[in-house]
Every structure is written in structure tokens, then in C-alpha cells.
Design a protein that fits this description.
By secondary structure, the chain is α+β, with helices and mostly antiparallel strands. Helix content is 50%, strand content 19%.
């Protein structure tokens, strides 16, 4: 009887010998898939964090330009801060020298566009004044940039043209009132 029990025990051990190895391999595969998924979630979160940083910078830049217009209010009320993009240069440094209104406007735009280009990827902007209401000027400030998390080709803009890239933008308005009356 003892002999039968040992034989049955030996057979049972042979049948279960590879089962532990199979369990280990399956567990490793599951852990690997979980770790890869976790890494993907973290990568996505980093991309979204960078996008939020760009949007915050755009808000700050638009607010800065609005404050610069407020500081040069008499000239800004005439619609003088209109800007359609392109190069903005200044011949005078208004932080160290006294400037007239037109020089201050040129200095403001040159400094602001330089910061815009350095802060946002492919950063551009437009400033459009609306002087249709007497004694009130409303500026629309639009800041555009290419969001690096979406820097991919979605299609082309026509036959033989370069592929279009998605851009993000932020729009702010500032209304200036002539309160000298």
C-alpha cells in the first residue's frame, strides 16, 4: 500500500512540475503589459502638462501686451498698437531713455514679439484695434502657436503644397476708454 501511494505521488509531481513555470511566465507578461500601459499614461500626462504650460504663456503674453497698451493709453486710443505679424523693431531702448508715444509703441512690440517667439513654439500674434465707437478703442489680441503634442500632419492644403500643421491660439480683448472728458 505504501508503494502505491509513492507511485501516485511521483506521478502527481511530474504533472505539476511545469505548472509553476507557466504561472511565472503569465505573471511576468501581465506585469510587463501593466508597466507599458503605465508608462504610456505618464507620457500622455507630460504632453498635456506641456500644452497647459504653452496656454498659460499665451495668456500671460496677451495680458502683458494689454498692460503695455494701458501704459501708453493716449497713443493706444488712436489704434496705434495695430500689429499684423512680421518683424517688429525698435531703435530706442525705452527702459533707459525717455521715449515719445510712437517710440514706446515700437519698443513694446519689438520686446513683446521677441518674448513671444522665444516662449512659444512657432509663436505669432496679431493685434487688431476697433475704433468705431467714439472715445473707446477695443483691441483683439490673438496669440498663435504650434502645440508640440499635436505637431503632426493631418492633410495638405492643396495640390503640391506643404502639409498643414495644427496650431493652437488664445484670444483676448482689451477695451480702453478715453476718460479725459
Amino acid at each position: 500500500m505504501a508503494r502505491v501511494d509513492q507511485t501516485s505521488l511521483a506521478r502527481a509531481q511530474k504533472q505539476h512540475r511545469g505548472f509553476t513555470m507557466l504561472e511565472t511566465l503569465i505573471t511576468l507578461a501581465i506585469i510587463t503589459i501593466w508597466l507599458l500601459g503605465s508608462a504610456n499614461v505618464q507620457t500622455f500626462a507630460l504632453r498635456l502638462n506641456k500644452a497647459a504650460q504653452f496656454r498659460t504663456q499665451a495668456v500671460l503674453l496677451a495680458s502683458e501686451m494689454a498692460e503695455r497698451m494701458e501704459a501708453n493709453k493716449d497713443y493706444a486710443l488712436t489704434g496705434g498698437y495695430a500689429y499684423s505679424g512680421g518683424a517688429a523693431t525698435s531703435t530706442k531702448d525705452c527702459t533707459t531713455a525717455t521715449c515719445v508715444a510712437t517710440e514706446l509703441r515700437a519698443f513694446d512690440l519689438a520686446e513683446w514679439t521677441t518674448r513671444l517667439a522665444a516662449t512659444l513654439p512657432s509663436g505669432t500674434a496679431t493685434i487688431t484695434p476697433d475704433t468705431s465707437v467714439p472715445l473707446i478703442t477695443t483691441y483683439t489680441i490673438v496669440v498663435n502657436w504650434t502645440d508640440r503634442r499635436t505637431e503632426q500632419t493631418y492633410g495638405s492644403t492643396g495640390a503640391g503644397s506643404a502639409a498643414a500643421v495644427e496650431t493652437s491660439s488664445y484670444t483676448a480683448t482689451r477695451t480702453l476708454f478715453n476718460d479725459t472728458n
